[in-house]
């Protein structure tokens, strides 16, 4: 009898046990920091996490203990630095390492800048930020964010301003007010000139981008809503009108700011890693204003933002877009947005209403 019981017990122990779900968010974060420090992408000189939960996305670094631990461990490396190096009024890459920064959950409209939110993120991360990333929405008018810039500067960080030419937060269509053609034609010059004057008057280094992720059709400044692949409605007949309008609108804004003496601005060109639509005319090279205008290249590198989306490692996504960026210009590269939601495994998952 005893031998029979022993055999049963041994059989039970030999049965394969179900493993707990792999913490894919934590693993994704670990992969990201490991790859960044590996030197494989040597021109990447800055990273900025998108710290926000919205709809069905849990992107905050404290969405789970595993994610928070992975993030804190990653940025604890001395290879991630927080003191900006300024040369000639512009941000230069660090002599060693990679800048650490973030969008610190500044509200649904991305512009609710306050000291508590900034402090909360840095406490969670266990590391300060080199800059604070926020949106300058053109809802009612075009106005330089004086108060937000002053607050960030007083906290000892660089203000990073996303110029967002939108009159509302709607995605997936043209904006009824702020068209690229209108910017080119000077319809908003008075406001933009004042914006440039106010920027110059701060006397501090500013980081600025216009038209975030312009190769993504979720934003109204994407080429799809501004002429698309057509070539006969604007400018050079050999170029797609949509991207060409973006390029010229961005050039116009930089020229207006330069004319106001705003040489304290470091200008970024910020693309999405993949973009949409997937068409040759929508490639980043067609939007690029030129080396004489742009100081840094930027990119968004997101893993799945909702359960059910295809899983890709940070390394794979950055590996796909890195050659595209290097072919654009010999400029330092910033991963201006990176994040991933909480997932149960590395594999594609069904969306459940109970999550």
TrEMBL record:
GO terms for biological process: substituted mannan metabolic process. InterPro entries: GH, GH26_dom, Glyco_hydro_26. The keyword Lipid biosynthesis does not apply. SUPFAM superfamilies: (Trans)glycosidases. GO terms for molecular function: mannan endo-1,4-beta-mannosidase activity. Residues 82-355 form the GH26 domain. The active site is at 213 (proton donor), 337 (nucleophile). It comes from the Bacteria. Keywords: Glycosidase, Hydrolase. Belongs to the glycosyl hydrolase 26 family. This is GH26 domain-containing protein.
């Amino acid at each position: 009898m005893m031998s029979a019981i022993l055999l049963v017990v041994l059989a039970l122990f030999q049965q394969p046990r179900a493993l707990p779900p792999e913490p894919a968010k934590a693993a994704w974060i670990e992969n990201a920091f490991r790859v960044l420090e590996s030197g494989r992408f040597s021109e990447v000189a800055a990273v900025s996490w998108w710290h926000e939960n919205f709809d069905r996305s849990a992107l905050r670094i404290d969405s789970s203990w595993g994610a928070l631990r992975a993030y804190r461990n990653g940025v604890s490396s001395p290879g991630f630095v927080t003191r900006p190096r300024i040369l000639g009024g512009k941000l230069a890459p660090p002599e060693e390492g990679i800048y650490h920064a973030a969008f610190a959950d500044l509200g649904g409209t991305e512009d609710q800048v306050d000291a508590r939110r900034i402090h909360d993120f840095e406490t969670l991360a266990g590391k300060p930020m080199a800059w604070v990333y926020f949106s300058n929405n053109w809802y009612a008018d075009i106005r330089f964010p004086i108060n937000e810039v002053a607050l960030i500067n007083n906290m000892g960080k660089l203000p990073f301003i996303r110029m967002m030419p939108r009159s509302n937060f709607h995605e997936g269509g043209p904006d009824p007010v702020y068209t690229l053609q209108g910017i080119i034609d000077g319809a908003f010059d008075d406001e933009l000139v004042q914006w440039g004057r106010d920027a110059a008057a701060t006397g501090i280094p500013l980081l600025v981008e216009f038209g975030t992720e312009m190769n993504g059709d979720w934003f109204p400044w994407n080429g799809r809503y501004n002429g698309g692949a057509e070539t006969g409605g604007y400018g050079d007949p050999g170029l797609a009108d949509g991207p060409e309008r973006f390029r010229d609108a961005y050039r116009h804004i930089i020229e207006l700011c330069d004319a106001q003496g705003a040489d304290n601005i470091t200008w970024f060109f910020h693309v999405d890693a993949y973009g949409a639509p997937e068409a040759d005319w929508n490639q980043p090279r067609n939007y690029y204003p030129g080396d004489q205008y742009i100081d840094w290249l930027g990119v968004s590198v997101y893993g799945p933002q909702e359960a059910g989306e295809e899983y890709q490692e940070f390394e794979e996504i950055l590996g796909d877009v890195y050659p595209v960026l290097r072919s654009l210009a010999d400029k330092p590269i910033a991963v201006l947005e990176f994040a991933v939601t909480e997932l149960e495994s590395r594999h594609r998952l069904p969306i459940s209403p109970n999550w």
